[in-house]
Structures
1.
Amino acid sequence: MSKIKKGRGYVYSIQYHIVWCVKYRRKVLTGTVEEKLKEILFKIADENGFTIEEFNCDQDHVHLLIDSKPQHYIPNFIKALKGVSGRFMFENCPWLKDGLE
């Protein structure tokens, strides 16, 4: 159950369930890759002012439950999560770019 939060003149509880797949549904999100992705996503969320309530990862897709403020624009935090995490993952795990593990 989500906590109800208060702002100046409004009350809110906003959560988004976001799912995205790895390119070509490659099964690369295992072991250290999954741990590194989780670390990067939580860091991005902290820097952008929203909270990841739940993180679940299968071998080829990611599930996130995000809690945010009404001022957040959904495409901006999707862009931050997918773009920045992808860039960091390719820097830390260059074999992902080739599709090899």
2.
Amino acid sequence: MTALRRALTVPTVIILEILILIYAPVLLVVAGLVAAGTGSTRPVRSTALVVAYAGIELSTLRRLIRRDERDWHGVLHDVLARAYAAVRAILDVRLVLEDGSATREQLTTGNGLLVLARHCGPGDSLFIAWLLVVHYQLRLRVVLKSALRLEPTLDMAADHLPLCFVGHRGPRARRRIHELAAAMSPGDALLLFPEGANFSLPRWRRAVLSLSAAGAHGAAQRASQRTYTLPPHRGGAAAALIGSPGADVLLLAHTGLAPDGRGRPWWRLPVHHDLIVRTMLAPAATVPRDRETLAGWLDDAWSQVDNWVHSHTVDD
């Protein structure tokens, strides 16, 4: 299955992105004409971002296909640094780490780190990964949806980096997350998105209704009061915490890439925007490792994340 998938996705992406680079001047001229007619710079910025993405991915695929790298974490560091630089230059979007956030020294002294991050809109994963790998200088492990194997760079990177692709939540997914966490050592960070999907108001409404329908009225009421986050799933977090009992936990809250701190249409790129991030460290000894107690701890932690987002955004 892996060989067949890559036989389809890798050549397709390579051919498409070579064509994008060849015709980049024409595409940029057309985008410029559209921008002149609409009075918006977004057509040019969007086209430039696609061209930059194609260049970065092609060079990364070349390194993955050659397989002669000695430091694959260094490759990830390089790719994230280039991608972040491109976003800053083209969109004027940057990550701003709030004062009082965890320091680099605090995050590299423990026996591994479990990162529980808010997930809101396309693009925030890049900034979160850049923060952990480039700024905090951690070796990253990530839990990803299995559908992302259709992206050939991520698919092939999993041969060399600890990326965990999971399908539907269940015992098999939890077992794989447990194993990934158990193998951590100082300087490693395992990134999880407990919400399971990007925040959007329709998803939030469905989640609240689902909790009510299941008879979890208390949880539904708490979720209805958190209007910036989805109810967190405890299965993956519990598997990781039990797998690595000595790991500290880092809560990662951010304002998202929309003015109101909520979701945005994927096609509407943010421009001249600061993604404000707050990281909050919870030492291993303060985080419960049994599933029942963990549920309450995670719920309280997500209320803290939601309150922080509310205090840092402009609600429409």
3.
Amino acid sequence: LSGIPGKVDTEGGFVSDLWLQGKLQDILDYNEFDAITTHLLWARVAHFAGLLSADAYEREQALTRELLRDEIEKGKAHFVRYLEEWDRLVALTKKRD
């Protein structure tokens, strides 16, 4: 509903299985997705609470996208999936406006 990705490729309940399978990078990727989502949700709540203006909220989203693109350039290809999902959700929420 918010246009912000939640769980992209896995969920918290599967982290122990990833650990047992030795998929530590998948766990790191999952945690990075969660951190970005938490930040975006915090910014949204702050905006609705009047702590961030509409301009500041849009700027925070733009900065987050910039950060993700920078991280992709540094080799964190899993963020491509995050940006794709974010774009998909934003497009869906704009269709309802």
